[in-house]
Specification:
The chain contains 7 helices and no strands. By secondary structure, the protein is an all-alpha fold. The longest helix has about 40 residues. The protein starts with 12 loop residues before the first helix and ends in a 6-residue tail after the last helix. About 10% of the residues are buried.
């Protein structure tokens, strides 16, 4: 575990295994199954006990600590990437490597959220007619008319 967790309470081995299971991305029930013997238990019993354990004062402190740690690591990763791209852009500019400079600044802009990928969707009346024909075939002419009405399409029969 991390070095700055000295203020956290001690956990039993099973409690710690439960916490580590959740940190790995398991559901509370699956983490409970990994940490404790649940053979013959109902799903409901496992869920109840996993919920109680997650609410335990000591365990909940550990879970909150791990969540905060994971969030700060995710933020650091984005910050580190932005810093790396800014450094790469500066180096490219100094060396007059203009194609690489453009690529680095574009990557920096994407990471910062300045670019949005767009997808163009083409829509034709022949596709509408095909779709409506299939709908009518499956559900009848009333369904087709209702779909045309809701879509604002004049009859395409």
């Amino acid at each position: 575990m991390a070095e700055d967790n000295q203020d956290l309470p001690d956990l039993t081995e099973k409690q710690l295994n439960f916490v580590l299971g959740i940190q790995k991305g398991l559901s509370k029930s699956d983490a409970y199954r990994e940490a404790y013997s649940t053979e013959g238990w109902s799903q409901a019993a496992i869920w109840v006990n996993a919920s109680k354990l997650a609410s335990n004062a000591k365990v909940s402190l550990w879970l909150a600590y791990l969540k905060a740690t994971q969030i700060s690591e995710a933020i650091y990763t984005k910050e580190a990437h932005i810093l790396d791209m800014a450094e790469a852009a500066r180096a490219c500019k100094e060396n007059k490597a203009w194609a690489a400079y453009v690529k680095a600044t574009e990557s920096l802009g994407r990471c910062a959220g300045h670019y949005v990928d767009k997808t163009e969707i083409t829509h034709t009346k022949s596709k509408d007619k095909d779709m409506l024909d299939k709908l009518e075939q499956m559900l009848g002419s009333d369904a087709r008319r209702e779909a045309e009405r809701r879509l604002g399409i004049k009859e395409l029969h």
